[in-house]
Design brief:
Layout lengths: L1 H20 L9 H18 L6 H24 L4 H4 L4 E5 L2 E2 L1 H6 L4 H10 L8 E6 L5 E5 L18
Antiparallel strand pairs: 1-2, 1-3, 3-4
Length: 162
């Protein structure tokens, strides 16, 4: 039973740490997923190499992580108000071509990281971005203002009817 309690305490601790670290650190793989995989691998390794002389201990620890993760997923489906707590909420980081420095600082994301993400999406100027949203999974969604051929934004003039 001690292993289950220890595993549960470590799971909660890792969850708190990953929420505190922020969501823009790893992009494709969430921070929590990376830590979860590394920790689970370490737990299994200890049992396999008999450092704690117990394969059962490793299985219990990994099973506890899995059960808590499934329970949190189930709770998120059942009680939607938990989603902002467990997964976070999307945050607007650019509005009208202007980066929101307060929002970026709150997420510990630099303007250079924002510019790099924009370049990866083929955006040349941040002023072309109407809206950018830092999603809960750490990815950035960019919504670019439409421009016509002369670089001006807005709708094109109607053709002459003459």
């Amino acid at each position: 039973m001690e292993i289950v309690v220890r595993a549960a305490v470590v799971w909660v601790f890792l969850w708190i740490i990953t929420r505190a670290v922020g969501r823009s650190t790893l992009g494709e793989l969430s921070t929590f997923q990376l830590i979860l995989f590394v920790t689970m691998g370490d737990m299994v390794q200890q049992g396999v190499t008999q450092q704690d002389y117990s394969v059962t201990g490793s299985l219990l620890a990994v099973s506890t992580f899995a059960v808590i993760t499934v329970a949190v997923s189930y709770a998120n489906q059942r009680w939607r108000p938990l989603l902002p707590i467990t997964h976070g909420v999307p945050m607007v980081i650019v509005r009208g071509g202007e980066p929101d420095l307060k929002a970026l600082n709150g997420e510990r994301m630099s303007v250079n990281d924002l510019f790099a993400a924009a370049r990866e999406q083929g955006i040349k100027r941040i002023t072309d971005v109407e809206l950018a949203v830092l999603e809960a999974n750490g990815k950035i969604s960019f919504f670019v203002q439409e421009r016509d051929d002369d670089g001006e934004s807005g709708a094109a003039d109607p053709p002459d009817a003459g």
